[in-house]
Every structure is written in C-alpha cells, then in structure tokens.
Amino acid sequence: MVKDYFEAYEKLKERGIKLTSYLYKADIRISEYLDKLNELSQKEKLTKQEIQQAGKLLEQIVVLVFKGLKGVQSIKSFQSAGPQYDLLVSGHDFEWQEVSDALYLKRNQRDIVIEAKATKAPLPHKQFARLCSIMEDNLIYAGLGIFVTLNGATGFPKRNSKERQRKVSDCRLQQIIFHARTNKIIIVLDKEDLFELSKNGTLIELLIRKIKDLSELSGLPTASVENWQEDVDLPPHLQSLYESNS
Q1: Which residue has better confidence, 42 or 149?
Q2: Would you place residue 166 in the very low, low, confident or very high pLDDT band (cuts 50, 70, 90)?
Q3: Residues 57-80, buried b or exposed e (16+ Cβ, 10 A)?
Q4: Do residues 171 and 141 lie in contact, with contact meaning Cβ atoms separated by under 8 Å?
Q5: How far is Cα 201 from Cα 215, in angstroms, rounded to an integer?
Q6: Sign of CA dihedral 191, 102, 222, 112
Q7: CB–CB of 145/103 below 8 Å?
Q8: Domain coverage including residue 32
Q9: What is the DSSP string of 113-179?
Q10: Cα separation, 181 vs 155, whole angstroms
Q11: Is residue 234 part of a domain?
Q12: Quick check: 40 and 51 in contact, CB under 8 A?
C-alpha cells in the first residue's frame, strides 16, 4: 500500500499535475448548494425560517467541501454539554499526512475544526475569541481552525479594496495574537471563497494562501484562486523591473 502511494505520487509529478488537485476532490453537488445559499443571502430581509435554512445550507456546504480532502477518516459534529463546535475533521493515513504537511500543521496537531456562521454581519470578535479558547483548552490536537462565513470577519482586509491595510484590530488582531501565543492557526472563508471550491485542488490552494498571509500580513484580501498566477507583491518601481524581460 505504501509503495502504491508513492508510485502514484511520482506519476502525478511526472504528468505535471499539482499535488493540490489530488489532495482535494470537489463534490459535484457543491455548486447546487451554493446557488441556493446565494439566493437566500441576496434577500434584504430573511424570515426566521429562511435564516435557519441558510444556516443548514452553509453546514451542508461545509460537509461537502471538507469530505473532499484526501485521507479524511473522521468527520464529526459536536452539539453536547461540553464545548460546542460545528465540525471536527481528522485522519491518520499517508494522504492525510500530505494534506497536513501542505497546510503547515504539526505532527501532533493535525485535526481541523470548522465553524459555520451564516450571518449577514461580519464575524464579531467574541465568536472568534471563543474558537481560540476551544482550540487552546479543549481541542489540543487541532492545529487549524476555519470559520466559514458569508461576509468574513471584523478587522480583516475588505474585498475589492485597493488600499493596503496597515493597522490590525478586532478578529484580525485576535488571529495574530493567538497564532503567536500557540502557533495554532485560525482562518476565515467568506462567500466568495466558497464559490471557488467547486473545482479540484482549490480548497488546498486557498487555505495555503490564507495561512501564509497570517505570517506575511500583506494587508490585502486573499487573491482569487482562479485568477492567481504568480505570487508577486511588489511596489510599482520594483514591479516594472520584474515584468520586463531585459
């Protein structure tokens, strides 16, 4: 089995296929559920029933997305008397090891905890701090926390903003402090991110980009996986040199 795995890995490299495409296989149903969620989120005012429906749709999307990771052996939802969180994803084989290595997770912290928040407002600091506490005090084997939201979290660079964020606050500040103190990672996905996840490999690429930005603190929103080509972020007087041939 081990031999077969490494032979398959070598074939992927020989054929020029990105490992990320192998590590995440998108479920064909994701687009259908995203369209339903998008239809609800476009409404100015939702009924109580529609709010509940949006929450369920987002949770269903989360399950469809994360079951597409290679090597997943356990996917659980916890609504108990103890700390409550939406989903805990883990694995133990070689494929999960590749996923964990790609996401910079330590050997003893390879579980992923996911919280789905279908509110129109950006995620508040209180909710972000709650997950920090759960990961630090209860889920000691979880190295990555992911908020799946409709409109991101407070303090993060805004989408379509051309201005680089030079100050951090709210959830963004909490994210940085938590990572510095524990070396654990919490990232935030929004609705635009979710619409990229209907293609193989996109989840891994998107998570890598967001994790790297936690260290780099570019001050810019995460670039689209579909439009991204080269990881170049230079001021104009250097960008022109990079783009010129001679």
Answers
A1: 149
A2: confident
A3: bbbbbbbbbbebbbbbeebeeeee
A4: no
A5: 22
A6: positive
A7: no
A8: 2-227
A9: EEEEE--SSPBPHHHHHHHHHHHHHT-TTEEEEEEEESS-BTTSPPTT--SPP----HHHHHHHHHH
A10: 19
A11: no
A12: no
pLDDT digits (tens, 9 = 90+) for 177-222: 999 999 999 999 999 999 999 999 999 999 999 999 998 888 888 8
Total domain count, the chain: 1
Predicted confidence at residue 175, as pLDDT, reads 97
- Strand ranges for the chain from DSSP E: 74-78, 85-90, 111-117, 142-149, 185-189
Answer whether residue 246 is part of any domain. no
Burial, 111: exposed, middle or buried (Cβ in 10 Å; 0-12, 13-18, 19+)? buried
What's the CATH number where 177 sits? 3.40.91
- For residue 117, report the phi and psi dihedrals to the nearest 5 degrees: -130, 105
| pLDDT over 60 (residue 115) | yes
List the beta bridge partners of residue 112.
89, 144
